Amino acid sequence: MEESGGCGLSLICLTASSGVPLYSRSRGGIGRQLPFSVIGSLNGVHMFGNNLDVLLTATSTENTRVVWKSFHDSINLIVMSSEVDSSDLYLNRLLDNVFHAMVLVVGLEELVNIKNVERLKKDLRACYRLIDSFLTVSEKSGDLTQCVDCVVPYDGPILQECLDAFTHAAESNFGCLMAAGRVVVATEKWWRLAAQEVMLLAWLVASLALNSSRDYPVYLPHGSPTVPHRLLTFQLVPGVDVCVLCGPTPSLQKVETELVERYWRPLQDPVKACLRVQLRSFPASFPLHQGILGLLLINREQKKGVYTVQAQQAEDKQQGVSLSLEQRRAALRAFYTLAVSQYFPSEQGDEKKGKAASKLE
Amino acid sequence: MKSDAPPIWTWKSRLRDAVLILALYLGEVGFCLSYKLYTARDCLNLGRLCVAERRGSGVMAAFLMPGSVIITDWHRSSEGKEFLSSIVRKNKRKFFGLIERPVLPPQVAADTACYKIFVSGKSSVGKTAMVAKLAGLEVPVVHHETTGIQTTTVYWPVKLRDTERAVIFKLQFWDCGEATLKKFDHILPACKEKADAILFLFSFTDRSSFDDLPNQISRVAEESEHIVKIVIGTKFDQYMHADVTERDLAEFQRTWRLPLLRMKSVNGPRLSDGQTLDGRAGLADVSHVLNGLAEHLWHQDQLMAGLVVPAIQAPKEDSLYL
């Protein structure tokens, strides 16, 4: 396992029945391909246990943590991490996110009843960008908390009202306004989707290449894993998309030409303002103690969170700041992991209300 | 307009057309020169291919001469540069959201003409790459099939030749993956709904994509008589590995009588930061495609409005003149 020593984090996906590798990704994009023998032995040891009714979930070598997870007896995911802050909680959630990202894009049916491995391999390429976004160090916390990151906009009520009307006009109940992968406002129904779905949709839109609009088939991993819905996205300004989840109608053309301009053009300024709060996640007018460098606030009931490591506006003027943004991210994520795995052991999505704010320095 | 052609097809008009076509051929020499200026860098590389290009463009000229509707080198004039600055800022292409517009200086004004363009072609010919290149975005390095439909808006200012009016073309490209097209019934109708043009793509490095063109055209373009149809050969940068010859192209054009454009879908030079794509260099690579598109779209509009007679665009019966 020394091969993966310097690599950081590697992810392998195989079919459970035959052990055929479907893809492998590593932190930093394409990266180094793991030797087939390593992949084979990692899968072999898991399969060996399986045959003896022993479930192998995780192991550690001197510097690497390995976690296995099997989904629907059809897909096996293996992750190896040599990073210090990779907890079991994070690695397990990573694998869970990755599998559900695959469901979101190609559908559960194709993953459970694999008829043509080569075809599946080709189809799975469409998830690479989304999966890679989970592997890169991000400014969001949704991958760890499985609650979508939100921004608190300047003109929330106006945006909310417009979104509700726009979504209704597009013959849907599911609408969401996103800025760089974070939810600005969403309709009531959107919040009733499973927490992971809300998070995955936000990450999906953020991971796709720059486009004016899209008509993207999605399989909601929890609500509708076999029947696809249409996710319509419209880029209002670069970085801000409005999304609608709908059935066979209306057409992309219709919504784009008849509704987008009409509803959103008058709101150009509030929409652009969403980008200004992006790094801080909430308006500058919000009072905050000087000592707080970053915070993570989670509402477990509504399954959403606010996360930032740049809580102070005029911060670069303070010379004494010693923690880099990476260190802050690591500290905050470690604190969350510790809190959830030590003090909220029922963390599988059903603790009543967890509030984790970290006061650094 | 085409259906009106036969009754007025008298000897007089034949004579007129013959003169016109002769004039077009004479004009071709001039066109070739300007075309070469455009692709001067290609010519350096291509050498022998350029000779063939002259022959190829002769056929193309029978449809719509590049530069007959718009002024092709206008972007290099000071006025053109002023317009270009609305889509290129600090040598970087600007990308506009759906509720944004290019902002022009107050003293210049221009109308915007919107067009929907459906990009069709076999899997992996480079539809997404072409659209990215036209928009000045990063051309994807690794290929994967496009999921669903994705649209990209490209603004392109041009100067009309007859009225000397500047018009901003808002070209919206509709791109979808071949697998998606087959899997979901709503995709093809959605792409064709109110489309103004269909681009048929083939790859210079994939012979089968070229052979598939007739199939594509008859499948996708049925009942779309008044839509602009243009064939685009992608991956022209890999001419060393070209699987399609100029002779094939000439023959294809004789049969199908569709305008043909060539496209290099690779990332151009980058700015000094080594990251951002050079906006102006990128535009220089694709301006002939954008101009060609704008020209055909505008001409088609004029035809539909009855403002021009379809003399330049040779009707099918015309083949005996060539």
UniProtKB/TrEMBL annotation, chain A:
Signal peptide range in chain numbering: none
Domain FUZ/MON1/HPS1 second Longin: 171-264
Gene source species: Pleurodeles waltl (Iberian ribbed newt)
Matches recorded under CDD domains: Fuzzy
GO terms of biological process kind: non-motile cilium assembly; vesicle-mediated transport
Domain FUZ/MON1/HPS1 first Longin: from-to ranges: 11-133
Alphabetical list of InterPro entries matching this protein: FUZ/MON1/HPS1_longin_1 (IPR043972), FUZ/MON1/HPS1_longin_2 (IPR043971), Fuzzy (IPR026069)
Name of the protein this chain belongs to: Protein fuzzy homolog
UniProtKB/TrEMBL annotation, chain B:
UniProt entry tagged with the keyword Oxidoreductase: no
Origin: domain of life: Eukaryota
One Pfam family hit: Ras
Compartment(s) of residence: Cytoplasm, Cytoskeleton, Cilium basal body
Single GO cellular component term: microtubule organizing center
Key words, A-Z: Cell projection, Cilium, Cilium biogenesis/degradation, Cytoplasm, Cytoskeleton, Exocytosis, GTP-binding, Nucleotide-binding, Protein transport, Transport
Record-linked PROSITE patterns: RAB
Gene Ontology MF terms in the entry: GTP binding; GTPase activity
GO biological process, one term: exocytosis
InterPro entries reported in the protein's UniProt record: P-loop_NTPase, RSG1, Small_GTPase
Main location: cytoplasm
Function comment: Potential effector of the planar cell polarity signaling pathway. Plays a role in targeted membrane trafficking most probably at the level of vesicle fusion with membranes. Involved in cilium biogenesis by regulating the transport of cargo proteins to the basal body and to the apical tips of cilia. More generally involved in exocytosis in secretory cells.
Family from the record: Belongs to the small GTPase superfamily. Rab family.
Record-given protein name: Ciliogenesis and planar polarity effector 2
Native source organism of the sequence: Pleurodeles waltl
Biological classification of the source: Eukaryota, Metazoa, Chordata, Craniata, Vertebrata
